[in-house]
Amino acid sequence: MSHELVIKNGLVILEDGEVHTNVAVDHGKITAIGKDLDGDREIDAKGLVVSPGMVDAHVHITPMGGGYRDEWEGYVTGTAACAKGGVTSFMEMPLNQVPATVDGKTIDQKYAVGKDQLKVDVASFGGLVPYNLDGGIQELDDKGVSGYKCFLATCGDRAIDGDFQNVDDYSLYEGMRQIAKTGKVLAIHAENAAITDRLGEIAKAEGKKTLADYVDTRPVFTEVEAIRKAIFMAKQTGCRIHICHVACKEGVDEVIKARAEGVDVTCETCVHYLYFTKDELDAIGPVVKCSPPIREQAQKDALWERVQSGAISFVTSDHSPCTPDLKDTDNAFDAWGGIPGVQNDVDVMFDEAVQKRGMSLKDFAKEIASNPADRYHLDQKGRISIGKDADFVLIKPNASYTLEAGDLEYRNKISPYIGRTIGAQIAQTILRGETIYSQENGVIESFPGQFIKSVHEDSKELVH
Length: 464
Prior knowledge:
Elements: E1 2-14, E2 17-26, E3 29-34, E4 38-44, E5 49-52, E6 54-59, H1 75-85, E7 87-92, H2 104-114, E8 121-127, H3 136-142, E9 147-151, H4 169-182, E10 185-189, H5 193-205, H6 211-216, H7 220-237, E11 240-243, H8 249-260, E12 265-270, H9 281-284, H10 297-309, E13 314-316, H11 345-355, H12 361-375, E14 392-396, E15 401-402, E16 421-422, E17 425-431, E18 434-438, E19 442-443, E20 451-456, E21 459-463
Parallel strand pairs: 1-4, 1-5, 6-7, 7-8, 8-9, 8-20, 9-10, 10-11, 11-12, 12-13
Antiparallel strand pairs: 1-2, 2-3, 5-14, 14-17, 15-16, 17-18, 18-19, 20-21
């Protein structure tokens, strides 16, 4: 039997470990795994690691700006960066687009804008905000969101009609009650808004302006307090929750404790928390500002321990780009808080986790692909196994390169990884059997990506 496509001679990461084997693809699905496979098309992956394509569960795209953010990252450039970086599908946050994705009407707008603009597959978060408790949560479920997102930290611009807003305690409680009925997961940005906002105001009034000063205004306990609140509310409501971008070991340990008590809670950290440290932030500049902030070396080391133990379920980019002017300031408190990073999810993580710290390839694939796919019930994603979508990233190990701005597919060519030497390269990215990026030919010009709609808990569909 001849298959449509066979990937040959690669070191393939399967669920029970890596093996030199071949993988066959037909009609966009994985149909066979084994030695003696022939294909109408063949890709020679000798010397390459064949991994499941990354499922980045935390990505901000701004497909519509409402006249305010029109020059930010859109689908065309954002999904091109994913393709070049080995990310074959991602979970899109319900902000920073205007209007925010908070009900049936606004998610339909997003689907319409994204039509024929996706180079990778996209699943959606719906927002939980104080103003969508009267039907918005259910409408989002009906329209196919794969999860929900809320902020305990301050977010959104109240002067912009339709912008996202953080929840108050009642909105969190009532929103959790409603989301629990859908069976889907609520992802939470957990920082204590009242304390971090006021500490920031005081520091700025005192003339402080460095990134180190900014980090000091968002101390560890402000993360931990918000995580505890979220867990407590989850206990009261039965809502499944996920803590986003945890930047401190104490926050992870709260999740570990709650899971032992039977709470359905997971957490993630971001590649940048595993890469940068507080003491280098000011030398890099505001491009590396984010929230929660990048912390000290001891915290970075502790996060790595928890990634390697499996306590942190997966890693994400929290790709949160903006225009260069919003980073062009000598006062860290005035800079936009977000890091563009989706293009360097896989190569940086492979280098740091596998090559430098000895993480097994099996665990690497769990952290970037199968665990996030499982958490958000992206059932066709995240594994190299028969019947799954044929989504792969072919990684060239021990192949260092220095990232330059011109390498980036982002609309705005800014990244804290520019100038960094990364010890692995993305050789090729394949989405449902179609090459969407290769080092030889670059990113595909067409748009084969689709929206993943989770119509209900056990039924998924892909739509253009």
